[in-house]
Amino acid sequence: MKKNICVVFLIFLLPIYLFCNDKYSDKYILDFYFDVLFSKNRDSIFNYTDKYNDFDLSDMDGEWGKKWYESLEPESIKYFFGDNEIGIGEGHYFCYQKVEQKKSNTIYYLGKESELNKQADKYSAIDWSAVRKYDDFILIFVYEGDYLTIYFNEEKDKNILATFCRVTEDTYKEFESLIHYNSCNLRKVTWPRHADGSCDYDGKPKKEGKK
User: Fold this and answer.
1) How crowded is residue 157: how many other Cβ atoms within 10 Å of its Cβ?
2) Bridge-based pairing state of the strands 160-167 and 27-30
3) pLDDT of residue 16
4) Fewer CB atoms near the end CB (10 Å): N or C, the chain?
5) Distance from the Cα of residue 150 to its chain's centroid
6) CA torsion angle for 193, 26, 120, 114 (degrees, to 10)?
């Protein structure tokens, strides 16, 4: 009886442990959002993606007449441990059948992808076209300092799906303020750092370019 109680207790604690782990409890947003924030100009977001122009038509709830900066919710990573589900970017949700933890990465073995994911491609700044060539694929999460790079199938440059950065709550609010009101306070921003402690925002902003 005691053994059974211990097993149930451990199963109950596992999601809590995962949620409290920095890799899972921290919020991550697309890396180029920090470039936009650094510029203090919300329209600079179109130097990196054209996708958000679609938000001028309607928001994701179908409310017509909104501008992109009224509708945009920052693309981030979301975990749903009760359903073994992970959300990546805008409207893309995956059920994973198995998770393999390694020293430098986490591998998610995915179940069948929903058609809703493919319909959401046009709203996401992430380019999903390379992934669409495969019926089945895995996602590999590689952590490097505050940066999280997601690969599909293989950990190679050509298989990079997207790069995200860890963001504090205050920084997230300043990015939202920039998008909604074109105003932000950079003194409240915590800039992401690489594993070696370096920061891309100590001097001039990174060169702009579409991703």
Assistant:
1) 8
2) antiparallel
3) 32
4) N
5) 9
6) 130
110: exposed, middle or buried (C-beta count within 10 Å: 0-12, 13-18, 19+)? middle
Task: Provide, rounded to the nearest whole percent, the portion of the chain with pLDDT above 90.
Answer: 46
Strand ranges across the sheet with 147-152: 27-30, 160-167, 147-152, 138-144, 105-110, 93-101, 85-88, 77-80
Burial class (CB in 10 A: 0-12, 13-18, 19+), 142: middle
> What's the pLDDT band for 63 if we cut at 50, 70, 90?
low
- pLDDT tens for 21-34 read 445 558 999 999 99
Distance of CA 143 to the CA centre of its chain: 13
> Distance between CA 155 and CA 157 in Å, rounded?
7
Element (H, E) at 14: helix 2-20
pLDDT confidence of residue 107: 87
Under 8 Å CB-to-CB from 210, ≥6 apart: which residues?
A: 47, 48, 49, 50
For 155, the token pair is: 């950990």
What is the model's pLDDT at position 49?
A: 92
The rounded distance, in Å, linking the Cα atoms of 115 and 125 is 18
Q: Closest Cα partner for 94 from 113, 109, 75?
A: 113
Count of beta carbons in the 10 Å neighbourhood of residue 103: 4
